[in-house]
Amino acid sequence: MLYRTLGRSGLKVSAISLGSWRTYGETVDDAATEACMTAAYDAGVNFFDGAEAYGRGKAELAMGRVFKKTGWARDTLVISSKVIRVGDGPNQGGLSRKHLVEACDAALLRMGLDYLDLFFCHRPDPNTPLDEIVHTMNELIQRGKIFYWGTSEFSATDLMDLYAIAERDHLVGPTMEQTNHSMLNRQRVDGELKPVFARYGLGTTIYSPLAVGVLTGKYNDGIPEDSAVGQGSEWMKSLVSESNLSKARKLTALAETLDIKPSQLALAWCLKNPNVSTAITGATKPSQVLDNVAAVDHVAALTDEVMAGIDAILA
């Protein structure tokens, strides 16, 4: 496994990490959850990503049962949660001081932990002042409940404002941003966030690096009704456009010339970017975990010539 420093912190995260969106605690039972997480841990994955919104806490409960059963040493793990909404009440969502603190406590309880390594604002909250977010996250750090805090899908402008507040008040700014990044969605990492990387060394924990499976090639011949995309949101279905499928087919052919799987090509491409700290992957079976982890071994195969070929396909 390859380990990368998360932003300008001293924390090392595995280049491939394991997420829990729409899987653990929902569509995947406890036995399969344990099998996937164990395969990941044994392969060197140290970062496991959760969120209060995933199954309204069910994903974190499922991961917590695995952490308890396996007894993995806490200092070998990097565990996250994300906060935005867990219920329908007026204060069961958002990024107010009340919800940030209560969501942190609830995540710790669900996963049976004393602290979170990473705690993300899962989405922006226009109703909460940025000052309140920065100060509350720093209070959680000072109380030993979290080690690092970050954001997810915050604009570059909001990120710059968060850093400005932290600098003004001598506090800790965000260490990482969790954003969508893949061959089919490059705008944020390769564009909007570049000034933030340059000035503040923001780390990234990218999600959907396989574009909800499009880049694995499994939708090249159509969308099964019982697939994740077939049963998913309009956002997911929008990724399976004819243009994207055409690109996926060409990328599949390129992967074959390199003797690697399309998913490994897509993940290795993400990891070629120095601004990507880790790629969060999903898995419902151990074999998928191992396929994803193996992408680390193929990064070197993406020579300048191969990268140019990929750019031509994606143009």
The CATH homologous superfamily corresponds to: NADP-dependent oxidoreductase domain
CATH architecture designation: Alpha-Beta Barrel
Helix content: 40-55%
Using the alpha-carbon principal axes, give the shape. Answer: globular
Strand order of the largest sheet: 3-10-9-8-7-6-5-4
Taking pLDDT < 50 over at least 5 consecutive residues as the criterion, the unreliable ranges are none
Element order: H for helix, E for strand: EEEHEHEHEHEHEHHEHHHEHH
β-strand percent reads 5-15%
CATH class: Alpha Beta
According to DSSP, the number of beta strands is 10
Biggest sheet details: 8 strands, parallel
Q: Number of helical segments?
A: 12
User: Termini distance?
Assistant: 31 Å
Please explain how this structure is put together:
With 315 residues, the chain is an alpha/beta fold. The protein has one domain: TIM Barrel (Alpha-Beta Barrel), CATH 3.20.20.100. 42% of the residues lie in helices and 13% in strands. It contains twelve helices and ten strands. The protein has helices spanning 30-42, 58-70, 97-111, 130-142, 156-168, 187-192, 194-200, 234-238, 242-258, 262-271, 286-293, 304-314; strands at 3-5, 12-14, 16-18, 47-49, 78-83, 116-121, 146-152, 176-178, 203-206, 278-281. Strands 3-10-9-8-7-6-5-4 form an eight-stranded parallel sheet, covered by helices on one side. Strands 1-2 form a two-stranded antiparallel ribbon. Strand 5, helix 3 and strand 6 (116-121) form a beta-alpha-beta unit. The longest helix is centred in the C-terminal third of the chain and has 17 residues, at 242-258. The mean pLDDT is 96.
